[in-house]
Amino acid sequence: MVSLYLLILVFVHGPSGCNSLWTVTKSTAKSGGAITIPCHYHRMFRDHAKYWCKGRTWPLCTVMASTDPRRSRGGMSITDIPEELVFTVTMENLQETDTNRYWCALKVGRIGKPDVKVSVDLTVTQGSPDLSVVDELVSGEEGGSVSVQCLYSDTLRGKEKKWCRSGDRHSCQTQTDTSQNASVVISDGKRGVFNVTMKELEKKDAGWYWCSVGDLQAAVYINVTQRSTAHRNTAEAVTTPTLPMSHSAFSTFTDSTATSASKTNPSATVDSALTTSYGSATPYPSVSVPYITIHSSTLTSSLTTVLPTCCPATESTATNKTIRNLPWHAPILIVLAMVLLVIVVMAAVNIYRSSRNNIRPVEGEMTELVINQDQ
Known about the structure:
Elements: H1 2-13, H2 17-20, E1 21-22, E2 26-30, E3 35-41, E4 50-54, E5 62-67, E6 70-72, E7 76-81, E8 86-91, E9 100-106, E10 116-125, E11 131-133, E12 137-141, E13 146-152, E14 161-165, E15 168-174, H3 175-178, E16 184-188, E17 193-198, E18 207-213, E19 216-225, H4 229-235, H5 248-252, H6 256-264, H7 270-278, E20 287-288, E21 293-295, E22 298-300, E23 304-305, H8 312-324, H9 330-374
Parallel strand pairs: 2-10, 12-19
Antiparallel strand pairs: 1-3, 3-8, 4-5, 4-9, 5-6, 7-8, 9-10, 11-13, 13-17, 14-15, 14-18, 16-17, 18-19, 20-23, 21-22
Helix pairs in contact: 6-7
C-alpha cells in the first residue's frame, strides 16, 4: 500500500529534486579565468524555464541568469540545450569575490510545488585552482581518439583520480578500472596532471564529462564529429588493374627497352614496345595502354584491348548463359518427360510379356495335335 502511495506521489508531483536535476557538487577556478557548469535535468522539464541563482541559502539567493525571461548579469550567461537535456552556465572574468554557493534551478510554476534546484560550491583562487582542465572543449573524429589533461594541486596528489560521465556517478572509472577497458585509459604520473584518453570514439560518446579528484569535479565537453571524407579516401587502398593478355609473352615481357619507351611516352602501345625489342615482324595483337591517373579512391582509366576471337572460354560462357536463360519451369518439364518415358517403357514391357503368354498355349495345342496324328 505504501509503494502504491509513493508511485501516485511521483506521478502527480514528478520525480524528486535529486532525480530531476543534477550537476557537479564542488568546483574551483582561477581568478580572471572562466568556467562552464553543466546542469542536467529530467525530460519532463524540457520546456520549463531554467535559471542560475547565487546565495548560501536557497530562500535568499539572487537570480543571476535565466532563460525565461531571458536575462543575465555579472558576466554570466545561460544556454539551454533541450535535445541533450542540459543547460549550461558560463561565468567569465571570475574574481575571488565570486566564491559562493550557486544553484541550478528549474521553474515549476505550480502552487504548492517549489522550484527544483541543486547546489554547487565554487571557489575562485588567485593562484592555480585545486582541480581544472586544460581545455573545456575537446573534439575528435568518429573512430579516432581524444586526450583530456586534468590538472590538480599537490594537496590532491595522493587522492584517487576518476573520469565520469557528467551527471552519472555510477559511470565513474578509476585508473584500475580503465586498465581493463580499452576504450578509456587514465594515466597519472603524480606530477600534477593526469591524462584521460578516449579511443574508438562514437557519436554516443559526445557530451559532458568530469575529471574528479576527492570531492572536486572539473567539467569538460567531448565533441565527436563525423569522420571526414578525405580521411576515409586516404585510408583506402588503391590497386592498379591488371591488363588481360592474350599471349604468355605479354605477362613475361620485362625488356628494358620497352620500359624506357613507356616512361618517355606514356601513351605508347605495347605493340610498339614489342617491335622495338623483337623486331618489326611481331605476331602479337596491339594492346593500347593509355595514361592512367590514380586520384585518392577514384581510378580513372580508358583501357582499349583487342582480344582474340577464338577462345574455348567464350563457348563455355555462351553455354552457361544459355542455361541461365532457361525458363523457371524447364526442370519440371524435364522431370515429367523422364517420368513419362519410364511409364512408356514399362507399358511396352508389359505388352511384350502378355504377348508371350498368349502364344505359349497355341504352341502347346499344336504339339498335342501332332502327337495325336502320329498315334
